[in-house]
Specification:
The structure is a single chain. This protein has one domain: Immunoglobulin-like. The chain is 0% helix and 46% strand. The strands form 2 sheets. A 6-stranded mixed β-sheet has the order 6-7-3-2-1-10, with no helix packed on it. A 4-stranded antiparallel β-sheet has the order 5-4-8-9, with no helix packed on it. A hairpin with a 7-residue loop joins strand 4 and strand 5.
Length: 104
């Protein structure tokens, strides 16, 4: 699993976890995961708390109010149908691609 990021514009589909984000908007897409994704959450406080996202009809996870998280760096937690979770730390808003530490 890979994290890809492009600021405020949709990205082409890559074998990855794509993050289209910025200070105004935040949108994540999980690709090439071993199991279906059940939840995708974001932490802005070092994994003390997690904010949910909502899966959109175009298969991106976004905040319910369509806003960004107001941070330059977040932690992403992906929950999979098999019960496993993948935590991707240090996701910065200027990165284009990040390899996730494991796959579900």
């Amino acid at each position: 699993m890979v994290v890809s990021y492009i600021s405020n514009i949709p990205t082409s589909i890559n074998p990855s976890l794509n993050i289209t984000s910025g200070s105004v908007s935040f949108s994540l897409q999980v690709l090439n995961c071993n199991y279906p994704i059940t939840d995708l959450e974001v932490s802005t406080d070092g994994a003390q708390t997690w904010e949910p996202t909502v899966r959109q009809e175009y298969n991106y996870f976004e905040r319910d109010d369509k806003t960004g998280f107001g941070k330059d760096e977040v932690i992403v937690r992906v929950s999979c149908a098999n019960g496993n979770q993948v935590i991707i730390p240090n996701v910065t808003m200027d990165e284009r691609e990040i390899l996730a530490p494991v796959n579900c």
